[in-house]
Every structure is written in structure tokens, then in C-alpha cells.
Amino acid sequence: ETKWDMPTPYGDGNFHTQNIAAFADEVKEKTGGSLVIQIHSAGSLFKHPEIKNAVRKGLAPIGEVLVSRLSNEDPVFGVDSVPFLAPSYDQAWKLYQAAKPAMEEKLGEQGLQLLYSVPWPPQGVYAQKEVKEVGDLSGLKIRAYNAATERLAILAGGVTAQIEAPDIPTAFSTGRVDAMITSPSTGANSKAWDFVSHYHDTQAWLPKNMVFVNKDAFDALSDDEKAAVLEAAELAEKRGWEASKVETKTKTQVLADNGITVVQPSSQLIQDLAAIGETMAAEWQAQAGDAGAAILEAYKK
Amino acid sequence: MDLSVIALLLGLGMLAALATGIWVAVALFSVALAAMFFLVSVPAGTVMATTVWGAANSWDLTALPMFIWMGEILFRSRLSEDMFAGLSPWMRNLPGRLLHVNILGCGIFAAVSGSSAATTATIGRMSLPELRQRGYDERMAIGTLAGSGTLGLLIPPSIILIVYGAATEQSIARLFMAGVLPGAMLCVLFMGYVAIWALLNRQKMPEQEETMPVQEKLWATLRLLPVIGLIVGIIGSIYAGLASPTEAAAIGVMLSLLLSWASGTLNRTSFVDALMGATRTSCMIAFILAGAAFLTVAMGYTGIPRELAAWIGSMNLSPYALLIALTLFFVVLGCFLDGISVVVLTTSVILPMVEQAGMDLIWFGIYLVLVVEMSQITPPVGFNLFVLQGMTGHNIFKVAKMALPFFLLMILAIVLIVAFPGLALWLPQAMQGG
Amino acid sequence: MRKALNTLYKAATALAACCLLVIATLVALQVLGRIADYLMTAGGFEPLRFQVPSLAEIAGFLLVGASFLALAGTLRNNDHIRVNMLLQAVPAGAARLLNIWVIAIALVLAAFFTWNAAQLALDSYKFNETSYGVIPVPLVYPQAVMTLGLLVFAISLLDDLIVALMGRAPSFETVVKADPIEGKE
Ligand code: NA
Ligand code: NA
């Protein structure tokens, strides 16, 4: 019997973690209990920044991370966070397929193998007033947590504010930040109605999590076990994408039920944001070089 | 070998290592390494380096050395002397007199600091010398400090509630609200105990000071202005949106330097001494925290806490019996592991039981904080004990004995929030309504 | 030799203190920037929008420097916590042996730790690991500082081990503290 420790960054209630739990159950069932995956959720074994390297070094055979966490390492991992490049589930799927070979190659260079990837709900704009055009964001303090979100805030005419996740409620209620871009899940889980009034369903981008294995650990499995893991992964990917869509609906509803005004963005706002998106896509491509150009070409086909 | 036997051996190993005089941090690392070498087949050294790196480079942790530094600066200024002189005439009729400063001071400081070690270190640096000089019973001076230092975890902001909120997807703002009343209740319990103790042990209290004429009393009160200014400055910087709670710690350092300068106690020597003192104290705590983080991961690999918690779950207890079992479990584990680690390691197993028993997850978060607070003052691994040993030279077991009454009062607090869940839930519910 | 070693410990601890000083300064600058923007906006001027980039991550890295570079200095000032009830209860000869045991264990750990921290830094260098935030800081730098701190710690333990083996009192046993709240055992 083989036991795999699996560090994951998010809590047990999160739909990504629940999907992983189902994946682990399926692996156990398909292998007749010869491969058991022990999930260590909420960063309880390794914290989010350490998970990728822990798997690379074989400290854990399998793990999950937010793909764009690796974007400072290689721009290829940042393509799903280019705003307005793929603003829907269908487009996000297409972009994922276009980027997958490059992602697999980059992971392969580190002895890692991609198993599957599932998106978060689309990112929307949370603010304390309705935003009708990008001009309304000008001068607002917008939360930025990496290079891409900082660039976006600047292009939108805002002031960037670096706010750590647990500090968000305090930062809003004390005025250190006026707006943030995140998913309805994160908004609902942090009870965003306590500190903002409007949610704009801009579908700016669909960041993804990915589950990956250490190649050596995978190769050490029997052929039957390998097949079981790959099958379970394929199912988990399908199930995860559907779960993500359901999550978007239910969590948007939760926001509305608690008194947040859910705004369908005006055509002006969409147009303004798309222009920013084009700038950032071009910048991303310049950064990502040939690999980036190939991804965008495959995506636009 | 049976997991409980292994757990027992590791616990005994830790006690033996500490008894022979091995440094606490070194003992934590050694026990964790032993567990990894014998029980797990991953490279222990690589895990150690990775884990310690991840735990040591932490933004939230930067508040700790800043607050310790602030305490060192204030200790070298006249501020604490002024504070005690200003409070003294007002508290002369309250049984326990200036001992209450420890409790109230920690309660107020807990409103800016999310950690119990930082609260204990900062307030203790200021109050212990004053209390000693004024002839207060050392056992009570240290005991009150050890107990009320843990309020840093319960009164918002709180590191442990952030960890719990992230793991369980509960609103951190609501958890913070839920901690306010139980925190105040704990303050009242501690103060009540001090008052009763003082009435029963009059011979151990210092001589009563002369009564002052009103004018002199008011004059003495003016000496409170600097400390009030400091508190308003730090808390105000957070609520005015000028600083995050973590940043407020550095504001505390700057304001303390300013006060120290204004009172004429800031010079090259006092500045360097305070900074070097803070550097060494925070190094000591950070090294132990690193050891505790590695031990946590080692325990995560071995699965011991998880299996023990699952064993409790398998007993199918009634809600009250479950709470009693969990409390015992946390107290025992909390002796050897850092309290926050225990929460991190066992939430996945415990939360389903708790939900099935129909308990509110916000309420349970507050219950957990109380148990984690207790683990800060149980030997051998309790961070308030380490801070106080560093400050007073009394060994952790002696400090733990001084803190025992406050440990028992925390158990009483748990009984009270079980009996009256509204203590934790009323404020967050009122917030939801509003 | 003695002089060179003492200088090494002092220099490392001083660097650690500088890390704390820099953290406080960076945060203060960030807050001053916010205050300035408040005032500028209130006065009807364009805000400066001053930001200390990646403050949280950089402060975290500086904290690693502060914690690890001070290890040796903290040891020699007897500020690392340990329980010395047994040491004080046994005869002097046994206490000497106990101290040798304690230092030896710590030295083995520190050496093992130094080696693994060096591997960590080397690996980050090989794989070009960077931080996640706005400024991609190569992780090899702060990790090398961590390794350096551990190395100095290991050296100081070796130093004390030799001293103890030669029958003299190790550094942390000779510290006299003029601290008014120091308790007695
Ligand atoms: Na607090
Ligand atoms: Na404890």
C-alpha cells in the first residue's frame, strides 16, 4: 500500500478542496486501496508558497497550487490572469487548452506532471459605489497582491494598495482600500457585505488551481495505479469545472441575498476594461516571448 | 507500534531533553527530527529547512519584534513609572490595587496585538519592574501577566482567529466580534480573582500609600497623558486607516522613541540597548517558533494528532461529552505543541464532528481560542512561559505554577461560554442584523 | 582568534538589529506616505501615491535576517531559554558533563540545519525561485542570510564546546545581568 501526503492551500469547505477529496476517494476505490491520498488542507502541512517546491523535492508526492502563484517564475503560468483575455468559462477552457502544452513542459522541466486544473469563479469588481466606467475607479485605492493586479490598478487610474488577505475587512472599513477584484466565492466567504455595497460581474479572468504530481513518485506506481490516477484526474477536472460554475451561481446569489447590489457591467465599462485587457495581453506576450505568442495564437484560432 | 505509544515516547523524549537543560528550541527541533527519522520516509533535513523558511519569513510575525522593541524602549523611559504613579491614587481602594494594571494593560494592548507572546513581553517589560519595586507579591505579578497576556489571542485582532477563519471559511470580522465579550469576561474573572486574593492575603500586599489631597491626585493623573497618547496613537492609526494592525506595531516603536526623546531618556546608549535587547528576545522567540513549526509539520506527517482526534470522533459522544473530551485532548496536546499548531493539525478531523454535533462554527472558534490560550501557560511548551522566563529568570515550571489559578479561571470561562453561548454569538449576530 | 570570533558574533547580531531597524523604517515610511496623501487630498492637492513596493514580503525577508543572524549573540548573552533546574541541583562535575552534552546536541543540530539551509538556498538559485509579489525577489538572497546566521550559530556552539571540554565555563554561563527584574532561582 502506498500513502501519498497531499498539501493543499485552501480549507475543507472550499469547492476545490472538496473536489480533491472526491478525487482522493476515487483513487482509493479504483486502486482497491493500494494508493491512499492523505489530504493536508488549509496549508496545514506546507503553506501555499512552499507547496510547489515541496512536491518538486519529493517531500510530498502530490499537491495543489494557484497556477498564477508561479507567474514570477515563468510568465506562462500567468496567462489565466491576464484581464479580459478569456472572460467566460468557455473561453477560459479554450485558453487552458492552448496553454496546457506549455504549462506541462515548464512543469516537466522541474520533474512535475500536471494532473488537472480547475478555475475559480470569474473575477469581479467590489466597490463601495457603482462603477459605470473606468473613470469611476480613478483615484480609488485598489487592492493589488501581485505584479498583474498592480498593473491593472494603475491602468485603471487607481492607487494600488497592498493588502494581505486576512486584513481585507479591516482595510475596507478603515479606508485603506476602496475596491478589490476577486471572485464571488472569496467575496461571499469573507462576508463582503460588511464592507462593500456593489459587486460588478465583470468576469475579468478565471484564475485556476492545478493539481500536480512529482514525476518520480508517479513513475513508481504500478501501471494499474497510474491509469487509476489519470482517470480520476480526468473526472475531477470535469467535475471541478462544473462545480466552479455552480459555485459562481450560488455565491453570486449569496452576495445578492445579503444586500450587495450585483451589477451587470455597463457596455461602457466593458469597453474600457477590454482596452486595458488588450494592453496587458500585449505586455504579457512581450514578457512570455515565443511561448506566449504560441499560446495566444492557439487560443485565437 | 501503536500511535499512542509513539506519542507517549515523543512526549517523554521532549521532557527528558528539556530536563537535561537542552535549549527549548533545540529540544523541539530534536524531537521533530527524531519523529521524522523513525516514522516517516521523507528527507527530514529538507523538510526542516523548507518549513522553517516558510514559518520565519512572515509579515504577520514582524509585529512581534516591533512590539518587543517598543517595550524595551518604554522600559528605559520614564513612561511606566509615570503610568503607575498616575494610576496609583485611583486604585488604592480597589482590592489588589496596581496588580490590576497587568490585566487591564494586557486587555488594552490586546486590542492592537494579535499575539499572546507580544502582549506579555510588552506589558511585562513595563509593569514587572514597577510592581516589584512597589513591593507587590511576585507570584501574583507574574501570574496575572502570564494569564492576561493570553488575551492577545482573544481580543481582536488575533492571529489564531485569522488561522481558524481561513481554514474554516468563516468571516474573520465576525470571529473578531465574537471574541470581544468573552475577552472582557476573562478580564473581569481575572480581576475578580485578584481582588479576592488581595482581600484574603492582606499581609502579602504592600503597605497602603498615604491618601493624597485632590489637587495632588489630579496632578499625578497628568502623568498618565504620555501613555494615553501612546495608546490613542497606536489604536488610532489603525482606525483612522493609516496603518494595518501589523504596521501599527512599527508605529508603536516610532511613538515610543518620540516619547522617550520628549522625556529626555533617549540617548545613544538607551537606543542601542533597547534595540539589542529586542533583537535577542525576538531571536529567542523566533527560534522556538521555528522549532514549533517544524514539530507541527513532523506531527502532520506522522498523523498522530489527527489519529487521536479521529479516535475521539469514533466514540460518538454527546455534544457536552465531546466538548469535555476535546478540552482534555487540547490541554494535553497543548502541553507539548504550540496551541495554534494543534488547531492547524486537527481542524480537518474535528470540524465535521463539531458540525454534526450542531455547534456553531463561530462559537467553536472562540472556544478553540480559549483552549489555545490555556496552552500558552502549560509547561513545557508555552510561549508566555518562555517570555516570562526570559524576563524574570524563573524557570518555566515555576512560572506555570504561578499562572495555575489563571489556567483554572480559563476553564471556568469555557464552562461559562458553553452555558451561555450568547457571550460569543450575540455581538456577531447583532452585526448581521445591523 | 578569540577576538576575531567575538567580532564575528557581534557583527552578526548588529546586522540582525539593523534588519529590525529597516523594517521599522520601511513601515514608518509607508504610513507617513498615507498621512501625506490624507493631508494633500484634504488640502485639495494631487496625492503623492507613495508606496513601499512589496513591503509585506520584504519585511518578512528582513525578519528572517533579524531572527537568524542574532542566534549566536543571543546564545552568548544567555537569552535562549532552557530549564536549568537539574544543572543547578547536581555537583559541579556532573553539571560540566551536562553542559557538554547540551552544547554537543545543539552543535549537531546547528550543523545539520546549516547544511540543509545551504541546500535550500542553492536549490532556489538553481531553479530561479522568486517571491510572488510585485517585486520578484530571488529567494536565494534571504535564504543565504538564513544559512549564514545558522553557520555563525554553529561556530559559536563549537567555540563553546571547546571551551567546555577544556574545563572552563561556556560563554552563556558567565553572563552577569544587571537587570532589575531578573529573578533568582
Ligand atoms: Na489581540
Ligand atoms: Na503549553
Describe this structure in words.
- The complex is a heterotrimer of chains A (301), B (434) and C (185).
- With 301 residues, chain A is α/β, with parallel strands linked by helices.
- Chain A contains nine helices and eleven strands.
- In chain A, strands 8-5-9-11 form a four-stranded mixed β-sheet. Chain A has a three-stranded antiparallel β-sheet with strand order 3-10-4.
- The mean pLDDT of chain A is 94.
- By secondary structure, chain B is mainly alpha-helical.
- Chain B has one domain.
- The longest helix of chain B is centred in the middle third of the chain and has 35 residues, at 268-302.
- The termini of chain B are far apart.
- Chain C has one domain.
- The model of chain C has no long low-confidence stretch (mean pLDDT 92).
- The chains are: A alpha/beta (301), B mainly alpha (434), C mainly alpha (185).
- Chains in contact: A-B, A-C, B-C.
- Bound molecules: sodium ion (NA) (2 copies).
- One sodium ion binds at residues 110, 113-114, 152, 155-158 of chain B.
- Chain C: Part of the tripartite ATP-independent periplasmic (TRAP) transport system.
- Chain C: Residues 52-163 form the Tripartite ATP-independent periplasmic transporters DctQ component domain.
- Chain C: It is a multi-pass membrane protein.
- Chain C: Its main location: membrane.
Helix-and-strand structural type of chain A: alpha/beta
Largest sheet of chain C: none
What share of residues are in beta strands of chain C? under 5%
- Unreliable stretches of chain C, pLDDT < 50, 5 or more residues? none
Work out the helicity level of chain A.
Answer: 40-55%
What is the subunit arrangement here? heterotrimer
Order of helices and strands of chain C: HHHHHH
Give a list of the ligands: sodium ion
Radius of gyration of chain A (CA) equals 19 Å
**Which radius of gyration of chain C do the C-alpha atoms yield?**
22 Å
Individual helix count of chain C:
6
Pfam families (chain B): DctM
Keywords (chain B): Cell inner membrane, Cell membrane, Membrane, Transmembrane, Transmembrane helix, Transport
Protein name (chain B): TRAP transporter large permease protein
InterPro entries (chain B): DctM (IPR010656), TRAP_DctM (IPR004681)
